């Protein structure tokens, strides 16, 4: 039996025996591709690491895993060295840290060759081999071989890493979120490259991802993991057509669609529990709308619902019809947006220009950008990293000073916050508030949630009384219980951090929230909750938004007008339905094409 | 919500429990502090009372650690000496921490001119041979315990300033500082209530090192006659006065020397423990 067979894989933390992954069965034929899909905490990465013998210290794997007649669980470190790279290759998530910064590209690749091959070749042959391998991953410029990683873009680094991972011609490639850290347009290129190489070389592929759409477009079959266990597995097309587990369906529906706006995203309440806490019940029961008493009695087994389709939901036969209805209801929904540029502008940015100087070089982050934000209006600022979108947002929030141009907020010239009078600055702080991408680090780790919110309240209202009551009200307005006031940020989950950050911004009653990638760090199911919260708060408080993001599907859900930025200037602007529906600028078209889609053709075109 | 609450209790469960070493350390330190306050009340004899008729004597049932050349009870003098051994270093460590932290926070957060001025002063004091400066100044103006304390604060504070500046530089660009700035928190408040708690572990660990260092330094100055007045019960001075008698009554020298080493070590261990507790504070709760 060739290929990979995993039976009853279990990953536990060494000293406490705490379960991280349990009861994982996988099968992978030569040349086949499978995806392991899950949110953070699902155990998908630990499963992959167990299969290549790279579990962190103190964590061990048990069970059976056979790969081409090698018992992977019985290998010692020496034996692993003959398997890793040569038989099983690995591509990691972060291209910025996985290449050794002091090695030139050719050395990274040469070191990855089989030792016997490397010693057989002459220097010139090795060089030729490196150039050939770079060309295989789409780098045709041979001079790249002599560059250091810091001289390469993220996409280039990921290509180099792929070339290195393939240097010993492995039969199985494990790709752990290979495109997550990359820009959206690069993401599609890298995924297409991996798919092309997999097919051309006849390799097996295990793709670890949190994005069902990517899994469907890349892989023959998909395994969905949740809280350390597989909850469903099927072929990609069947799974896309009709998920047979409430979690899979929830995951599919929480992904905002890029082609239309829906009134409210279908969010899964709560967040992923630690695996060992739900080991004795259906792992999804704590968040499932269909959970009944029978779901809490022991963990259901993965059982066959249809030929080739396994699900861990014991009620699937009863609820299948309801699942279908929910899905078709959610997919039919679409709302119109009205987007006319409002007459009264709250923020007017004219000819904004910003340069950063590092040593001798000057980098232009913004080159003559003009935008207008109306009072209570939702505006999107879309672009990839380096487009200047964040710099512009920070300049409006007064965290960055422009090199040229003007910013007017609520009739006050806010081009340079350091020149403002104390009164004007105080007024503007109360007008514009910022929500950061990494909500956790925007909260002081040593202070409780309550004291952070109390501080924000007392800035607006220094003589505030009933502080704990007002903190409680604020927490309630973002959907958190008042008890959270006692907690420190470390005791909260990612979605809750962002809720607290929103509450803190709301405490000063702003007119405009500048949200810098506010959901980019969140799991999909939680992302939908936070997006819904943004919409609700906007209705209740009439606050305007400047939504800075790279994700077009999110923009579609939350704003009326959008500015598309590229290399420091606005390339296209207008109502969100027009810009995304009929893009006129080639860059906008490229961005739209790079939104992942479950269709197999997504990777092919362009 | 119930699932969430369980998660939190799990995170909180493995608190840092003090181990045996820490319990012993804190107990000894507690005793030393009690001695510093009540030492004279429990001492068997008046530490100043001379018994020239007895003179130098080795340990006996009446004088457990013997007497010095003037017939003063060594044990009583050690108990009484705890006060000057604890108070001075504590004032130095605290004073240097306050001065050094304020300067370090300002230098790290403001940058620019203020940073340059503060750091050049730091460089200047680092380039001076500290002990020598104290010896010269104290020698010129006549040595006294509190003059030595003030001089040591000025010499020790730059070390604190440098460490806190570095830690502040690391914290200043963090989003939580920007978030505080953008809701309009004033600068002194950002420095004291936002950044300082995050650099406090380093500040407090450094203060404990300073405490131990100044204990030894003050003892050295007393030994040289530039600290406390002659005749005062002080561990450093006792080592100095007893050194000529080392072979007649070794306990007269070794006992105060051991107390200096013991106190300095215990303070260092306690400082380490506080540092670990504080730095895990943000993580575990």
TrEMBL record, chain A:
Subcellular localization, as worded in the UniProt entry: Cell membrane
Domain of life from the UniProt record: Bacteria
Main localization (coarse): membrane
InterPro entries: AAA+_ATPase, ABC_Ni/Peptide_Import, ABC_transporter-like_ATP-bd, ABC_transporter-like_CS, Oligopep_ABC_C, P-loop_NTPase
Membrane topology note: Peripheral membrane protein
Family: Belongs to the ABC transporter superfamily.
Coiled coil: none
Pfam family, one: oligo_HPY
Keywords per UniProt: ATP-binding, Cell membrane, Membrane, Nucleotide-binding, Transport
Protein name: ABC transporter ATP-binding protein
NCBIfam families: oligo_HPY, PRK10419.1, PRK11308.1
Residue ranges constituting the ABC transporter domain according to the UniProt record: 4-252, 347-592
DNA-binding recorded as keyword: no
A single GO molecular function term of this UniProt record: ATP binding
PANTHER family hit by this protein: DIPEPTIDE TRANSPORT ATP-BINDING PROTEIN DPPD, OLIGOPEPTIDE TRANSPORT ATP-BINDING PROTEIN APPD
From TrEMBL, chain B:
Pfam family, one: BPD_transp_1
Residues annotated as domain ABC transmembrane type-1: 86-271
PROSITE patterns according to UniProt: ABC_TM1
Organism: Phytohabitans maris
CDD domains: TM_PBP2 (cd06261)
Protein's cellular compartments: Cell membrane
Primary localisation category: membrane
Signal peptide feature range: none
Cross-referenced PANTHER family: D,D-DIPEPTIDE TRANSPORT SYSTEM PERMEASE PROTEIN DDPC-RELATED (PTHR43386:SF1), OLIGOPEPTIDE TRANSPORT SYSTEM PERMEASE PROTEIN APPC (PTHR43386)
Keywords: Cell membrane, Membrane, Transmembrane, Transmembrane helix, Transport
Topological type in the membrane: Multi-pass membrane protein
Protein's recorded name: ABC transporter permease
Stored InterPro entries: BP-dependent_transpt_permease, MetI-like, MetI-like_sf, OppC_N
Keyword Membrane: yes
Keyword Membrane set for record: yes
Ranges that cross the membrane: 20-42, 78-109, 211-231, 251-275
Assigned protein family: Belongs to the binding-protein-dependent transport system permease family.
């Amino acid at each position: 039996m060739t290929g990979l067979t995993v039976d009853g894989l279990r990953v536990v933390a060494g000293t406490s025996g705490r379960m991280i992954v349990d009861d994982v069965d996988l099968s992978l034929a030569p040349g086949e591709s499978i995806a392991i899909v899950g949110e953070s905490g699902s155990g998908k990465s630990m499963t992959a690491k167990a299969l290549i013998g790279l579990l962190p210290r103190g964590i061990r794997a048990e069970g059976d895993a056979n790969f081409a007649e090698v018992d992977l669980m019985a290998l010692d470190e020496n034996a692993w060295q003959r398997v890793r790279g040569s038989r099983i290759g690995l591509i990691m998530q972060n291209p910025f840290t996985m290449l050794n910064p002091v090695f030139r590209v050719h050395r990274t690749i040469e070191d990855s060759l089989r030792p016997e091959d490397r010693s057989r070749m002459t220097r010139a042959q090795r060089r030729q081999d490196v150039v050939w391998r770079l060309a295989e991953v789409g780098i045709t410029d041979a001079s790249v071989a002599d560059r250091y990683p810091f001289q390469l873009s993220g996409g280039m680094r990921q290509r180099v890493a792929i070339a290195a991972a393939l240097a010993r011609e492995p039969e199985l490639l494990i790709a752990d979120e290979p495109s997550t850290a990359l820009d959206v347009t690069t993401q599609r290129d890298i995924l297409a490259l991996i798919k092309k190489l997999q097919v051309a070389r006849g390799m097996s592929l295990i793709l670890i991802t949190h994005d069902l759409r990517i899994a469907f477009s890349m892989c023959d079959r998909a395994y969905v993991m949740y809280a350390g266990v597989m909850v469903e597995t099927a072929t990609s097309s069947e799974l896309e057509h009709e998920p047979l587990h409430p979690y899979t369906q929830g995951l599919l529906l929480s992904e905002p669609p890029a082609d239309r706006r829906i009134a409210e995203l279908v969010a899964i309440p709560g967040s992923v529990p630690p695996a060992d806490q739900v080991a004795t019940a259906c792992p999804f029961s704590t968040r499932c709308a269909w959970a009944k008493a029978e779901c809490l009695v022991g963990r259901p087994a993965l059982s066959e619902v249809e030929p080739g389709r396994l699900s861990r939901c014991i009620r699937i036969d009863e609820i299948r019809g309801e699942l279908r209805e929910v899905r078709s209801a959610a997919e039919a929904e679409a709302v119109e947006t009205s987007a006319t540029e409002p007459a009264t502008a709250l923020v007017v940015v004219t000819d904004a220009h910003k340069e950063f100087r590092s040593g001798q070089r000057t980098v232009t982050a913004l080159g003559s950008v003009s935008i207008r934000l109306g009072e209570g209006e939702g505006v999107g600022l879309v672009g990839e990293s380096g487009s200047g979108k964040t710099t512009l947002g920070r300049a409006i929030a007064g965290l960055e000073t422009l090199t040229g141009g003007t910013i007017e907020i609520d009739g006050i010239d806010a081009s340079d916050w350091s020149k403002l009078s104390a009164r004007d600055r105080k007024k503007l702080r109360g007008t514009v508030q910022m929500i950061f991408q990494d909500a956790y680090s925007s909260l002081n780790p040593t202070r409780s949630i309550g004291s952070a919110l109390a501080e924000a309240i007392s800035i607006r209202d220094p003589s505030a009384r009933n502080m704990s009551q007002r903190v409680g009200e604020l927490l309630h307005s973002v959907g958190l219980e008042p008890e959270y006031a006692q907690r420190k940020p470390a005791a909260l989950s990612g979605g809750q951090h962002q809720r607290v950050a929103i509450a803190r911004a709301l405490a000063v009653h702003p007119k405009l929230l500048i949200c810098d990638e506010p959901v980019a760090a969140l799991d999909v199911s939680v992302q939908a909750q936070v997006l819904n919260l943004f919409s609700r708060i906007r209705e209740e408080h009439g606050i305007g938004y400047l939504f800075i993001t790279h994700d077009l599907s999110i923009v579609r859900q939350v704003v009326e007008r959008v500015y598309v930025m590229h290399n420091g200037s606005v390339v296209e602007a207008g109502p969100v339905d027009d810009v995304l529906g009929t893009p006129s600028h080639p860059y906008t078209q490229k961005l739209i094409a790079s939104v992942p889609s479950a269709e197999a053709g997504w990777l092919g075109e362009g | 919500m119930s699932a969430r609450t369980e998660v939190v209790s799990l995170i909180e469960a493995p608190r840092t429990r003090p181990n045996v070493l820490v319990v012993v350390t804190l107990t000894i330190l507690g005793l030393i502090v009690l001695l510093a306050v009540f030492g004279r009340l429990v001492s068997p004899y008046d530490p100043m009372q001379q018994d020239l008729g007895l003179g130098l004597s080795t340990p006996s049932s009446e004088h457990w650690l013997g007497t010095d050349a003037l017939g003063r009870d060594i044990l009583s003098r050690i108990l009484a000496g705890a006060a000057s051994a604890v108070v001075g270093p504590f004032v130095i460590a605290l004073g240097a921490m306050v001065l050094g932290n304020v300067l370090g926070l300002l230098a790290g957060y403001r940058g620019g001119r203020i940073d340059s001025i503060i750091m050049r002063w730091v460089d200047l004091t680092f380039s001076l041979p500290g002990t020598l400066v104290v010896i010269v100044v104290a020698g010129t103006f006549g040595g006294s315990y509190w003059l030595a304390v003030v001089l040591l604060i000025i010499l020790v504070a730059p070390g604190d300033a440098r460490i806190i500046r570095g830690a502040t530089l690391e914290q200043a660009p963090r989003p939580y500082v920007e978030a505080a700035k953008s809701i309009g928190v004033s600068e002194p408040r950002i420095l004291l209530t936002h950044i300082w708690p995050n650099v406090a572990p380093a500040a407090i660990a450094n203060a404990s090192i300073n405490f131990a260092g100044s204990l030894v330094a003050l003892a050295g100055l007393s030994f040289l006659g530039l600290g406390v007045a002659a005749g005062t019960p002080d561990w450093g001075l006792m080592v100095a006065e007893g050194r000529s008698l080392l072979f007649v009554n070794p306990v007269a020298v070794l006992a105060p020397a051991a107390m200096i080493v013991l106190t300095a070590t215990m303070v260092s261990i306690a400082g380490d423990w506080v540092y670990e507790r504080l730095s895990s504070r943000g993580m575990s709760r």
